[in-house]
């Protein structure tokens, strides 16, 4: 395994109208090729800022982001983004298939190949029949599936997901979580999944990175030693799942209180069994 | 419900026309200046069978359509350019705010000086009036691009031109349509005003001639025609808008999912 995505010394300060907000203080972590990593932190801890810096949408004040060894200065071609606001991220003036196809148009692909990628991606997310519909004719969960299909069709090395399921109902959310696990296993893409939901982070991730409150640093990195085969019913009641989620929960609570800011554990591996 | 509304609308119109017939006949107003509906209708029928009327109508519509087309293209191109090029909008904002409120009719002397009583004079007025409507709406529209949509496009590496075409333009389109619809109405007003005041060929000039020759019913008949034109322009613009913006929330309404 080697580093695919690297963040080192990342710092982002928003300066404007006499106010200076340090959203991200000093972040360093790596994501290896083929990993599924969840970033979790207290709300308002600069997760979105971090992700936008990684996606090349924001320029960091200091530090750098590397994708496959190359410094990210703008949106890199090997990266796809799934936003929380699916309703605004999909274009209402385009049909589903056109939405999925649009990013492919500036890639050097034949029309037939593009069609194939679109059909395959829609099939993968379970919406083979939605190609001709408009996004607003679909339910929220289906719209987010379309957004995921668009990212898949783009064939990225890394998929960045910014709290993608925060706005869908609990049942849909469970289905979408399983979809992400399945796509990760089937396609071998590297996924960085940002969430504020601790259960979701532990259920999905192979590794969980816990962030501190703003100004943000990495508080802890945690390997999730749950079996690769996970399902909503059994995994969530497994004693190990409960332990891990309790551990992350405590870390987040401590982060919220701002405790241990100067004694941050950055490289613990797996918490001991209780 | 719809049938009832249609019936009510028809009844209202019929009552209005009847009133127009009755008031002069009862001597409440002078028939000389305010002929009854039936006389106006007869004058209108005479106009419709006159070749010169159709030429005048053609002239007016030509001035209107040409002017509107120029104003629309110029307004859209300028609006997009001002929004896309950094600093340009800030640099031009105060100039636009100064030029925009100048009533187009104030330019009539200038137009006459430049082109006399030709179609080009009317075009100046029509273009000036329509241009600002389209420009201002385009500027608003471009500002209304959803940041998430734009970030999505950027994250997928779409270039400037692709973002203008696939994100900025469709987002601004509802505003542009409003601008064009407003401009279409204003353009008609200015086309007829220009003809009436400058004497450029068209319905406006014909109204002037009718007035000068004391042909009062003919004058009213022509006024009715301009009113109908305005109505058609508005209905036409709305129909095009509905078709082109079928995806937009204002047109599609709430979709049951």
UniProtKB/TrEMBL annotation, chain B:
It is found in: Cell membrane. InterPro entries: MetI-like, MetI-like_sf. Its main location: membrane. GO terms for cellular component: plasma membrane. Keywords: Cell membrane, Membrane, Transmembrane, Transmembrane helix, Transport. The keyword Transport applies. This is ABC transporter permease. It comes from Streptomyces griseorubiginosus.
């Amino acid at each position: 395994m080697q580093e695919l995505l690297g963040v080192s010394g990342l710092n982002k300060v928003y300066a404007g109208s006499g106010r200076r907000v340090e959203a991200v203080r000093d972040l360093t972590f790596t994501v290896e090729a083929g990993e599924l990593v969840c970033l979790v932190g207290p709300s308002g801890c600069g997760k979105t800022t971090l992700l936008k810096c990684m996606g090349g949408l924001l320029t960091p004040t200091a530090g750098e982001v590397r994708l496959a060894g190359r410094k990210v200065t703008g949106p890199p071609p090997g990266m796809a983004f799934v936003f929380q606001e699916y309703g605004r991220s999909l274009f209402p003036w385009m049909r589903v298939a056109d939405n999925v196809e649009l990013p492919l148009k500036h890639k050097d692909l034949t029309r037939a190949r593009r069609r194939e990628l679109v059909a395959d991606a829609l099939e993968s997310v379970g919406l083979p029949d939605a190609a001709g519909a408009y996004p607003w004719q679909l339910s929220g969960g289906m719209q987010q599936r379309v957004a995921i299909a668009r990212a898949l069709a783009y064939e990225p090395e890394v998929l960045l997901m910014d709290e993608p399921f925060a706005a869908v109902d609990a049942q849909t959310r469970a289905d979408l979580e399983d979809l992400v696990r399945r796509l990760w296993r089937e396609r071998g893409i590297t996924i960085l999944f940002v969430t504020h939901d601790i259960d979701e982070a532990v259920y999905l991730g192979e590794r969980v990175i816990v962030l501190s409150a703003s100004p943000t640093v990495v508080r802890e990195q945690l390997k999730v030693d749950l079996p690769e085969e996970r399902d909503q019913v059994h995994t969530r009641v497994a004693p190990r799942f409960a332990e891990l989620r309790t551990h992350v929960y405590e870390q987040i609570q401590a982060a919220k209180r701002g405790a241990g800011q100067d004694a941050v554990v950055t490289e613990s591996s797996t918490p001991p069994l209780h | 419900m719809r049938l009832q509304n249609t019936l009510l609308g028809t009844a209202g119109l019929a009552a209005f026309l009847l009133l127009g017939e009755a008031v002069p006949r009862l001597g409440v107003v002078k028939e000389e200046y305010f002929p009854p509906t039936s006389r106006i209708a007869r004058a209108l029928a005479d106009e419709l069978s006159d070749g010169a009327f159709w030429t005048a109508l053609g002239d007016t519509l030509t001035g209107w359509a040409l002017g509107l087309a120029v104003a629309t293209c110029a307004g859209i191109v300028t609006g997009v350019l001002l929004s896309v090029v950094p600093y340009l909008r800030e640099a031009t904002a105060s100039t636009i705010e100064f030029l925009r409120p100048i009533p187009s009719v104030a330019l009539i002397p200038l137009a006459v000086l430049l082109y006399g009583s030709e179609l080009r004079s009317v075009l100046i007025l029509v273009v000036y009036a329509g241009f600002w409507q389209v420009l201002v709406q385009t500027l608003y529209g471009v500002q209304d691009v959803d940041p998430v949509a734009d970030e999505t496009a950027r994250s997928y590496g779409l270039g400037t031109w692709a973002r203008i075409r696939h994100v900025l333009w469709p987002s601004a389109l509802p505003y542009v349509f409003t601008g064009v619809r407003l401009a279409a109405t204003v353009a008609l007003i200015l086309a007829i005003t220009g003809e009436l005041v400058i004497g450029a060929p068209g319905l406006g000039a014909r109204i002037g001639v009718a007035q000068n020759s004391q042909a009062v019913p003919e004058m009213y008949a022509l006024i009715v025609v301009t009113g109908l034109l305005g109505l058609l322009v508005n209905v036409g613009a709305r129909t095009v808008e509905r078709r082109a913006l079928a995806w937009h929330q204002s047109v599609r309404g709430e979709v049951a999912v």
